[in-house]
């Protein structure tokens, strides 16, 4: 590949850079994941994309390349549609409730795959919270498939789900800034595109149409919302709008409008131990499930066809004690 020509296109700054086409993006990201791009050029590409922002064709091409390196899993036979949850930000200020969302979905009968980073020196990861809850990660496709088939939460780190992506993500700590891999990892799935529902989040509401268009383009169902500190769970203090994308035929539709701010007793601190203790109390019925998460769970029930509408989904939640 003529990397200098690609860098010349994407590296002209925010106002003058040009996007590369889909085929070039696929070839470029495949080369990056295969370790075939020299360090100097790799750094230039990552910073150029950081400044310019990924175009729609670029993001679709990078995603296509990433999926070629992804672990493959099958939807369990005779079960509800699997749900894929990314967790790549962790907790900075308040407790990370992504593990609670995943475990509640398991309680509802969904096969759930939760994937994320194994370490972040600046935040409390889902892995740390799950470890405090006694949930250990799987490391192979066989183990993950067995968990899904057996009705248990399958948690896997990106190191095992897609090792080349883990190496791209780790460059953050060397370079000082995030790169395209951080966005791509949150879109990853080990299932066929329409075989699982993906939960996705954005950092700002204005990005919802862009991410919604991405899921339309790849014809994949998704629940999309403004995340909590970058995580996909609906903020208990103020539930954001929750949107559904059905695939190629539908644009993002708001199933839940943004809710008023409320007061909720959250974990004592963001620590893994305090968060796990609080989550366990919710799972034991000693604390109420935050209404924002109940709304998110209801949307998942409707999106997967397990309920016909949010009213019926609410009845289902009550039946299982959520």
Automatic annotation (TrEMBL):
Q: Name one Pfam family in it.
A: Glycos_trans_3N
Q: What is this protein called?
A: DNA-binding protein YbiB
The protein's organism comes out as Pantoea eucrina
Question: Which GO terms label this protein's molecular function in UniProt?
Answer: DNA binding
Q: Which InterPro entries match?
A: Anthranilate_Pribosyl_Tfrase, Glycosyl_Trfase_fam3_N_dom, Glycosyl_Trfase_fam3_N_dom_sf, Nuc_phospho_transferase
Gene3D superfamilies for this protein: Nucleoside phosphorylase/phosphoribosyltransferase catalytic domain, Transferase, Pyrimidine Nucleoside Phosphorylase, Chain C
Q: Please indicate if the UniProt record lists Iron as a keyword.
A: no
Which UniProt keyword terms apply here? DNA-binding, Glycosyltransferase, Transferase
Gene coding for it: ybiB
The chain positions of domain Glycosyl transferase family 3 N-terminal read 5-70
